[in-house]
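User: My collaborator sent over this chain with a note saying "see what the structure looks like." That's all I know about it. Can you take a look?
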Amino acid sequence: MRYIRKANLAMVFIVVGSLLYLGNLYGQRLAEKRRDQCFRNLGMIEAGMEACALEIHSKIGDSLPKDKIRPYFKNGKIPQCPSGGQYEIPVVGQMSKCSYHGVLPIFYSDSTGQVKAYQSVSLQATNETSR
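Assistant: Without extra context I'll predict from the sequence alone. Here is the result:
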């Protein structure tokens, strides 16, 4: 009788452990999907800012009001971060960023051909790519 109870208890631990593992795996994938969507949104914001700046002949350092950028998005709505972050619309020439996920990564290939990402443009990144 005790053997059956121990076996049932072991099965309960296995089932609970499996459910926790699957829940954690689902949570990680959901977080990755939200981050990827946020980066796609940042790309759209960058494109909208660029189009607006070209149309109104803005110079680097000029600020773009949100009401000028809105027409470049579907239904005039600037995208929202799926994780609840807030998008910052910077001056022309700087990258927009999310308060939750940060800036849109910039990808480059190093001398070995391996793809790497920097979180912002820097002199080091440009020196690496020019080699």
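A starting point for your reply to your collaborator: Confidence is low (pLDDT under 50) at residues 119-131.
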